[in-house]
Design brief:
This protein is mainly β and 610 residues long. Helix content is 12%, strand content 39%. The strands form 7 sheets. Strands 13, 16, 20, 21, 24, 25, 28, 31, 34, 35 and 36 form an 11-stranded mixed beta sheet that branches. Strands 1, 5, 6, 7, 8, 11 and 12 form a 7-stranded antiparallel beta sheet that branches. It has a 5-stranded antiparallel beta sheet with strand order 2-3-4-10-9, with no helix packed on it.
Amino acid sequence: GRCAESWIFNKNLRLQDITIMYFTALAALMVILVASYQAPNNAVEVSSLKPNPSRLLPPLPMPFRVPLDPRGELQLAWNVSYTNQEIYMELRVAELRHGVVLGMSDRGELTNADLLVLWDSGTQSYFGDAWSDSKGHVSLDSQQDYDLIEAKQKAEGYYLLFKRPFSTCDPRDYVIEEGTVHIIYGFLDKPLASLEKLNLSEIRTGVQRVLMLRPDTPPPTLPPDVQMLDVVAPNVSMPNQETTYWCYIHNLPENLPKNHIVMYESVITPGNEAIVHHIEVFECSPDIPAVPGYSGSCDDKMKPKKLNFCRHVLAAWAMGAEAFYYPPDAGLAMGGPGSSRFLRLEVHYHNPLLISGRRDSSGIRLYYTPSLRRYDAGIMELGLVYTPVMAIPPKQHTFYLSGYCTSKCTQTALPSGGIYVFASQLHTHLAGRGVRTILVRGGKELEVVQEDQHFSTHYQVGDRRALFMQRNSTFGDVLITKCTYNTEDRSEPTVGGFGIMEEMCVNYIHYYPRTQLELCKSHVDQGYLQKYFSFINRFHGNDQCVCGEVSVTEQFSQLEWDEFTGEVLDSLFNTAPISMHCNQSTASLFPVSPQSRTHTPATIDCQATN
C-alpha cells in the first residue's frame, strides 16, 4: 500500500502517465461490466457447449411426446429414469427465432412458474434455469437444475436435449410427481439484452397438460388372432370455434359374438395432432333396443335424447397418452348377450386459432380377440351421486366433497376372492382442482388408489394402478373419493349434476374379475340437508320455511351466502348421515343394510334419490 501510494503521488509522475492509467482502469471496468451483462451468471452459453461422453444419454426413441401449441411449432418428448429420479426431455422448435420459454406451474399460470429459457442477446445464445415472480417477471435461478446435454439444428427444427430431477430441493422449482403437470411455453420474437427484462405477459404463451411420470413397464404382447375396430369421426368438418364436443353413434355388427378388448389407442388425423384434445368411447345401455344415428355437436339441444343413455365408458384418451393395455388375464367384453350394438364416440376439439375448413376422422382403435381371457374386466364408478344435494358455496378458494363406497356394499357385492384394480380415471367438471381416492381397511387408510392434486377437467386421462381389494367378513374395504373445488369466480352456488357448470366427483376404476357392482357412490342424507336449510334461514332472520316447496337447487340459490353458511355446509357434508347407492349393472340396488360411513357416525338410506 505505501509503495503504491508513494508511486502514484510521485511529484515527478507525468500527467500523461496518469491519463493512460485512468483510461486503462476505465476500459478494464467496462470489460467486466459488459462481460457480466452479456454472460449471465450460471447460464450456459449454447455456442460453447461441447459434447461430453460421460453424460448419460436417455434410451432412444423417447416414448412419450406431445405437441405443445396449436400450430405444432413446439413438440416435447421425454423419458423417465426412475432409478436416477430424473426426466430427460427433448424440445423441438420448428422455427427458432430468438428463443423459447418452457416451464411448469401449479395450474398453468405464468406467475410463480419454474422455467427454462433459451434466449439470445443479439450476439450470443444462452440456456438457463429461471423463475417468474407474482407479476410474471423472469429472473435467472441461482440454483441451475436443468442440465443441458445437447443443442442442435436439424432438418426438422432446433432441438434441445436436457434433463432435470423430479425434485430439486429448490423452493422456486416445481416438484414433478404423479398426476397432471401443467406445461407452459412461450416464444421470444426479439433479442433479450438481459433476461431480467423478460415478462411472460408480454410474449406469446400457452399451456399444455401431460402425465409426465408414466409406468416404465414394457407393453404386453398382443394375441395372434387380434382384430382391430376403428371407432372414428366420419370426416367431420371441425367448427371454427375454440371448443367443440363432437358426438357420433357407431353401430357394431349385428349378432357380434362376445370378444375381449385387450388394447386401445388413439387414431389422429395427420395435421390435427395439436387440435384433437381428448376422445372417449361410451357403450349405450343394453336396455335401449335402438339408438338413432347421429353426427353433430354433443351440446346440440336437437340431438336424439337416447344419446343420454350412452354413458358406460369403454375407452378414454387424452393428448399425450400412450396406448392402453389390459392385463394378460383380463379383457373388456364387447358383443354377446347383455351388450349393446351402439357406441357413442365423443371427440373434444380445442381450436383456439379458430381454424376453419379442417376435416377430421380421429377416434379410438380397439384391439379385440375372440379368444376370451380368464376374466372379464369391469368398470366401477366411485364418488358422489350426480345430484344437486351435493353443492359448493360460491367464492371458495378450496372446498372439499367426499363420496363413499362403504364396507357394507363391498362385503355384499365383491366376490369372496376380491378384485384387482389395474387402472383409474378421475373426473370432475370445471371447478375441480384435485381428486384423491383412498382404500380404507379396518378403519385405517391402507393405500392411495389414485391422486391428482393438479387435476384439470381439460385433461382427464386414465392412469395405471396395481391394487388388490378384498371382501373381508370382519371389516370389508371402504373406498373414499375426495374432490377439491375452487369457485372463486362464481357468485352462485354450484350444485351436482350433468351440466358442465354443475359438478361431479367421480373415479372410474378398471378392475377384474367383473362383478355386478357398477356404481358405488353416496350423497348426504336429504332430511339432514333440509334441516341445514331451515337452520341457515332462521339464522339469517328468514323464518319462512320453503322445505319441499321448491327444488334443492333453488333452495341453495336462495341462501344468504357468507362465511358461516359455507362453514356449516362443510360441517354437514363431513358429519351428517349419507345415502348410499350400491347399484348393480341393471341399475337395481344391492340389498344393503344400514351402515355408517368411515370415521363418522351415520346411517345409510339405500333408496335411490331423484
